[in-house]
Amino acid sequence: MRRIMGLVVLLAGLSAVPAFATEPAQERWASAGAEGYRLLQRDSAQLQVSATAYCDAPSDARREQVERHWHAAFGRWQAVRFIDFGPLLVDSRGWQLQFWPDNKNLVGSQTERLLQHSGDQPPSLNSVAVQGFPALEFLLFDPQLQTRSEALPSVGSCRVLKAVAERLADNASQLQADWQAYAQRYREDPEAEAKMLLAALHALEQLRDKRLGQPMGMPAGRRNVYLAEAWRSQSSLQAAQASLQGLQTYFLPGLEMQLQGAAQQRLAVRFAELLQSALVRFETLPPGMATVLEDQTHYLQLQRLYIDIDGLARLLGGDIAVELGVVRGFNASDGD
Fold first, then answer.
1. Residue 73 near residue 101 (C-beta atoms within 8 A)
2. Homologous superfamily assigned to 2-324
3. S-S: 242 plus which of 78, 203, 225, 277, CB 3.0-4.6 Å?
């Protein structure tokens, strides 16, 4: 039910991006980024409001509302997460919004430390590991924490919940404002189209190699749900679905505008069809990764999804990039 409700909210907003057939691709992408960040800001603000209301007067209904708003705002972030340049690079905002990968469980250990904070003042959120969606996810969904006295709605956990929700909402608001200021420079940037194509390519490769591949044990390891993002909320695949839906809504229309020639249009059609095929795969998969890794039937379907995403990455980074004259360079979020 959470998955359905979260996706209904997400898809309703994604469909609102305006279409203007005569505008250049970078104009479409600048507008799409503005719309995506606007929705992220709106839903992050709503999450902050519901977190405060829950802690001020706890109830089961208000707890469910906080969880629902977390899923909605997290989905908004997944949809625009591929735009890994511009204002997102300021002060490592991408990491502030979502600290992942987290192989050392810094989100859990550092959020636990914040729970020990005493006094009436809000805790200091000095680490990026405790400033975004994963820290809120820990407070709301961590199975071990939920059995302890420190669990919500205790005073300590509510103090942290409200502080992190406020930081998240502030970052989303600043990101929206900064994109508005950056958008004109982006429209005039001769590398604008290449930047967006390479951002989408990097997002597909990260989805294939890290977000799906690592917990799947690809290419020759053991399956491990704890290597997946959002495993505590059992929404790893729901997040992946939102990311692909974001590419379909925010990236694909501009790509289709770039690929206007007859041969180019065939590439656009191939990409669109493969993207839709990947999205259809989610209809038979649960929102979380744990069940999929344990059930062989589901795992085979996940493997087919992996192959679809690999095909998307190869097509975008191969024939499409060559056709458009885009040369791959270093990406700031590639890591070592």
1. no
2. M75 peptidase, HXXE motif (1.20.1420.20)
3. 78
